[in-house]
Design brief:
This protein is mainly β. Helix content is about 0%, strand content about 50%.
Length: about 400
Amino acid sequence: MIWLLLACADSRPAAESPGVCDGTEPVDAGVEYTCVTSSTEDDNADGVPERAATQRLDAAGNAVVWEWDDDADGRLDRRVLSTYDDSGEVLLQESDTCADGTLESGTRWLWAESGCLLESTSWDESGSVTTASPYTCDERGNWLTYVDGTTCSTFAYDAANQRTFESLDVGCDGAAERETTWSYDLDGHMTMEEDDYSWADGGLDGVPDERDTWTWSGDGDLIAFDGDADADGVADYTARWTYDDAHHQLTREDDASPLDGQPDQRSAWIWDQDGNQLLYEVDVGADGSVDQRLEQTWDNEAHRLAFTWDRDGDGKPEELGTYTYEGGKLVAWVYEDRVGTADAEGIATYDDEGRQTQMDSTDVYGHTVTNTKWEGNSHTSTTQIDLDLDGTFDYATTTSSDCDALSVTG
């Protein structure tokens, strides 16, 4: 088996960073980035932030530099540098824990061409180096073995890359505590899972202690599930489904132990011709009485206009919601209780390009106002939250994103 090594195996890079982190100016990390995002947190909304952070992203959206100012005094406190391969896998991550320009710790990862992690090497400021090789993989990138501390797992797959076997060995002493096997149909749907436990029936004996089976229609819809908790051939729980021609669920019936062939719960759905759910009902005791009922209406563009939710089946909805749209954008919403008191409501505005510029909402968690200013592909958003609804904002955050630069090194 030939592996393509995508990162060198050096245990530790040079200790000094490319630039000097003096805590007053952005650090020249010597990396290329195309987008910068920053954020501040103001714990009492007095206009003076308590924390700040900056993130620089490469063209693929990977974070190549993270910088934190933990007390928002204008001096950096921490920094993390990361490099990636072309597929987005992280190759190297180094930490400058005191923002003085020295990279005290880090981790280097070694990947195979298949995407399998072959090795990770970590080091700290004391010079201690730890190397781990948690996985072995086949040529398709599937795990064959995995070691997590003192737990060892082994796996097997079929020709379609579907996992068919897993063994779990707690303690890595060569004696597995659990073995699981899976079966599939020709379309790749799982049809059976069997578990053999060491703590049942005198140990791992190759005879399943638990078995679950799934049945699928020729159209790929799940139509039956049978759970056999002791693998004695008699199901302890069953579920059955029906569907319309568009594969939307129409009914579900659940029969729990002791199985008597009569459902213990029924659920039903109704859909419109566009695939929007109009009605959902639950009959908890399968006695013919509806215990929960959700009704919804939609416009011609599949926007939900309203819903009512009767949670106790008394015919009086406990929650009602309405939505208003303009130009396909949600501009207002209200959630009310059965007596018409608003539990949550909000409004939103947008610019001519359809980007949200303001959202003002109130719910049980407080009153939140977010204002966003756009310039090209860049924006700045400020969020203020009144947690106790006393009219005074208690917390505020500001986030900004500058993604107009094509390529910057710094």
